[in-house]
Amino acid sequence: MKPTSLSPVALKGGFLLSLLFALPASAAPCGRDPAGFESWVAGFRSEAVGEGVSEATVDAALRGVSYNRSVILRDRAQGIFHQSFEQFSRRLLSPSRIAKGKALLQRHAALLGRIEQEYGVPGAVLVAIWGLETGFGADNGNFRSFDALATLAYDCRRSERFRAELLDALRIVDRGYMSPAQMRGDWAGEIGQTQFLPSSYLKYAVDFDRDGKRDLIRNIPDALASTANFLKANGWRRGAGWDEGQPNFPVLLEWNKARVYGETIARFADMLAGGSGGGAE
């Protein structure tokens, strides 16, 4: 948390000291260039230990962490989400992606049926998300997650949000779910075949094949079932439709707040399901 800014000139004596001692320990203020990054990381290390993360984990995960300028450039260049639905979906719903989605829907029919039985989310929706997020696991991203998350946590645009995600990434390591080296993904810190932020991993990742690991990077059953668990936990209604105006469309917006992205998930799922909305409503 960014500390409250106080002017020593405006405060005197014991009143100043009482206010300073009352302030919570926290990382250094956010920054808009790399100059203060190392100092910020040093402050964040202490904050993370204060939040209950072991010193060993903090040292292992943040050793050598570096400011990544390309992360900031990508964060500032998200104009694609301001495109019309026609422009956006035409770019993402290529004939080859649609064909591969249909093939994978058939190949994993038994798995997807078990997932739907447990979570109520149809396979067409899960395969649509899988295809749009990473090309069905072909491109999970290759950014070092701790570099990406620390860069965004330090940057002033969304520092509070990504400070929390960085803490959750440390908790993933601290609990033994993944090692720092395994945590590689997209530029905003998402990991796995359907791109979970660390907070979502901790809340929704499941070990669907019961092999003792919640592996969203290499394990298709875990990745798809975790996605279904996310949707169910955010209000997915079994048997209801997912197109705009239907009960489950707002749940797609919980997956991604950009309406054009939710609309594209719905359209892709319609194509895979061979109908409109997939539900009775």
TrEMBL record:
Instruction: Quote the protein name from its UniProt record.
Output: Lytic murein transglycosylase
Per the UniProt record, the lineage of the source organism begins with: Bacteria, Pseudomonadati, Pseudomonadota, Alphaproteobacteria, Hyphomicrobiales
Q: Where is the signal peptide?
A: 1-27
Residue span(s) of domain Transglycosylase SLT: 37-243
PANTHER family named in the record:
LYTIC MUREIN TRANSGLYCOSYLASE, MEMBRANE-BOUND LYTIC MUREIN TRANSGLYCOSYLASE B
One annotated GO biological process: peptidoglycan catabolic process
Q: Which CDD domains match?
A: Slt35-like
Any transmembrane segments, and where?
none
Identify the InterPro entries for this entry: Lysozyme-like_dom_sf, MltB-like, MltB_2, SLT_2
Give the molecular function GO annotations: peptidoglycan lytic transglycosylase activity
Which UniProt keywords are present, listed alphabetically? Signal
Instruction: Give the originating organism.
Output: Methylocystis heyeri
Entry's Pfam families?
SLT_2 (PF13406)
